[in-house]
Amino acid sequence: MRLLAIAPLLAFALSPSAQTPASPAPVPPPAPPSQVAIQVDLAKSLGPYRPIGSWFGYDEINFTNGKYGSQLLPELHDLSPVPVYIRAHHLLTSGDGLPKLKWSSTNVFSLDANGKPVYDFKVLDQIFDEYKAAGVRPMVELGFMPKDLATGTMAYEMPYPKTVSGAVQSPPKDYAMWGELCRRVVEHFVQRYGRDEVATWYFEVWNEPDIAYWQGTPEQYFKLYDYSVAGVRKALPNARVGGPGSTGPGSQRAIAFLTNFLNHCANDKNAATGDPIPLDFISFHPKGSPHLVPPGPGETAHIRMGLQNEISAAANGFRIVAASAKFHSVPIILSEADPEGCAACSARENPNNAYRNSPVYPTYTAAAMKALADLAAENKVNLIGMVTWAFEFEGKDYFEGFRTLSTNGIDQPVLNIFRMAGLFAGDRVSATTSSEVPAEDIAKSGVRAQPDIDVFATKSTHEAAIMVWNYHDEDLPVPASQVSVKITGIPAGVHKVLLDHFRIDDTHSDAYTVWTAMGSPQSPTPDQYAQLKAAGQLQTLTSPTWLDVNSGSVTIPTTLPREATSLLHLTW
Fold first, then answer.
1. Which of 53, 189, 468, 520 is least enclosed, having the fewest CB within 10 Å?
2. At residue 299, does pLDDT exceed 90?
3. What is the CA radius of gyration of the chain?
């Protein structure tokens, strides 16, 4: 069924005018292992579980209180018992408050005829009131530059897809005025939502200042950071501030930018105050790189994911932080961590993105979450979050191919991986498999030689959660693998456990395949819409089952297709 996501795009992909990267050469599908043995030891703790996946973001902040945005936010809150954080662009951008692709505005700042600042919090309040109503917490991204403060010589707003090249991305005319804007915004948040609440938020300075999102020099960004955090801390002395939200670091440029930023914070004085520079968290953006592989003789067009790019960039960032004498234990937030770099670029524009409606996206995310957690532990750094840069787009077709969590109120398969992760609790426990691709190997060469049939498990007092997935970079049809999950270390005195087996694959927790089976309606009937809503929820593979415990263990056999994910939830 996944090929349905690719077939309509193939003619475009192979046309001379298609503006897509050169595709890698086709490869034969790797043979899956016939049997995979997984061992989980609930008695062997690896330390407290850290839920890094409860973070989400999007370009268009004005979608927050749109028809479907206001429906999605409570769903995100309900994913797990831990706080869910939301990051969005264009918090301080000037404009009419109407969203477009990769564009939004709040018009919070302007100058009057005498050059005096005017602050208007109306649109900002609507957005942050929506966050409060949904019970989610903001990761406040301080950007972009208000029109009356911008120094850029180009038009303030450039049309999509050139939206990152306008003057909205330029340095301020007056750094002190920018710092005062940051202070006034945070002061307003404190007055409206309370000092204790705002102290739980994160304040990040700008977005990807090492590329076109910042039209100044690195030194000008460092100065912007100094004035920003000085303004935030003046309004709320215990506010959590950080950055730089830079790319990669997969390139030498991105590596140098992050390194120099940390050196600035460690060794320089704040340009605004002359004091030491606060840095409460470090952020950067590792991304993958998928490609549509055209068919060769006797072959099928398919998507080749690029997990290696994301994991190797994260590993570089972790090593940079670990090498910092002052900041090696500071929390790290991957404030964008995704299979590629443009949520607003649909699969219609770029067929490399055809994975998005399918179970490939959640399975990739499961593999990425474990690899990131493993690399953070290996480098002894404090990873607390990875932001999935996906939300929803108002006024677009159903399953148009944007990187989304839902489409017109219908949940995408990827949202269910976070519902699964929400069942993790307590301690991470030992879990091994006969078909694992270690994180360091993914960082070197991706998942190409063999599938990554892997596992992640937690245990708390009366429950355990075991996630198992079958991931490969090549999304090709191959036979399913037979997987046997042996779970030991069930507490003494427990004679039965209740198994709930949740599944994401082409026929479970996947509204896209239901929609295509309906004939891909763009105006579904009420009955069809209700079916799609139900199909988008996390579904079980089997009915709940009581299992007998023998000598503290149970064994659960299952058939796991390529690009499928299971969550085995045991309670006793």
1. 520
2. no
3. 24
